[in-house]
Amino acid sequence: MDLNLSDEQKLLRDSAERFIAGSYHADHRRKMASDPLGFSPAVWKQFAELGWLALPIPEEFDGLGGGAVEIGILMEAFGRGLVSEPYVATVVLGAGLLERCGTAEQKQASLPKVADGSLKLAFAHSERAARFDLAEVATSATKTAQGWRLSGSKIAVLDGHAADEIIVSALVHDHHGPSGRIGLFVLPATAPDLAISDYARLGGGRACNIELSDVHLPEDALLGDGHDALPAIEWAVDRGMAALGAEAVGIMQTLLETTLDYTKIRKQFGRPLSANQVIRHRLADMAIQVDEARSMALRAALKVDAAPTERARAASGAKAKIGKCARFVGEQSIQLHGGMGVTEELEVGAYFKRLVAFDTLFGGSAHHYARHAELGRRT
Asked: Which of 3, 67, 175, 314 could be a cystine partner for 303, CB 3.0 to 4.6 Å?
């Protein structure tokens, strides 16, 4: 298997790294951290102009037809800059579910708007009692004469406060009672009886909890033809974990490079820290962990369109391993910077916080080690 990047992928990587290096600096990140929106609409518009929002969208809907590997290349660059724009929520999860489940009319109505930056999406699926079990959904969608009535609550909705439309998962109740099927419903973020409470995420960006109190929707709010959406949800979350894994690799690479530079200039007893053999060993261990994480992220991206069990094992394996690598690299970076590593003066602490947040999204390492083992037993 040839794992070298194509010429087009190299151009994407180089252009993304140049943009991030020129646009995302410490002052910009501090400004976004105190902004109620959590990101810059001007930068989001630039994403659209660069074609990044259209990257994974099919060409028939004004996209570029890219795949998970291209998303991974972009997300690794985003990790280097601690990008807070709602790329995962809108493009990876939201647009992915629309493409996977939507009817031709629904795709035509929404995907071109995602590509040009005029439509931002969010995916509301997690619930307090689910414990990262994607099949555990208590929110209900009851069929009515006029359409649907949704009731329930969702937590940790990535960038839901900034979305124009929210894709909500709910257990379908038809005229005969609970059907056992999970449906996906698209509702405007301004819908009556929809309450959104947003909060800052650890390491940058924002998320929200939402409450649905008998939200009434038209019949065409149901995404697709009404078949069980659980397989599509599992696919989208595995795709999201592959993208977030690539972002974590970019963060770890930046921490490694920053720490290496710091140990070369920081002197102790008249010698640079990097002259100490023990410090060199720790830096080498960090580099090994970064390379292992990058391999796992690439494997998860390559398996996104594989058979469900194979794809899920690759995604869970990557999430578990990268989470472990991320914590090691982050802790080593903090320790090698000494007390300054946790101050606002250096950005090492901000990168470490984003890595801690990564480990909790869609389930931590322990959860995914268990999921990986369970999938292996099924195989």
From this structure: 314
126/155 Cα distance (integer angstroms): 6
User: 339, 346, 300: which is closest to 323 by C-alpha?
Assistant: 300
Residue 41: both structure tokens together: 């609409």
Q: How many CB atoms lie within 10 A of CB 60?
A: 12
Report pTM. Answer: 0.94
CB 105 within 8 A of CB 280: no
> H or E segment at 200?
strand 194-200
In order along the chain (379 residues), what is the average pLDDT of each group of 10 residues?
A: 82 95 86 88 96 96 95 97 95 96 95 97 95 93 93 96 96 81 95 93 92 94 92 97 97 95 81 83 96 96 95 97 96 87 79 92 92 87
Neighbours of 246 (CB within 10 A): 29
CB burial class (10 A; 0-12, 13-18, 19+) of residue 29?
middle
Assign 19 to helix, strand or coil. Answer: helix
Which residues fall within 8 angstroms of residue 91, CB to CB, at 6 or more apart? 52, 53, 55, 56, 57, 71, 114
Q: Which of 8, 9, 40 is nearest to 24 (CA)?
A: 40
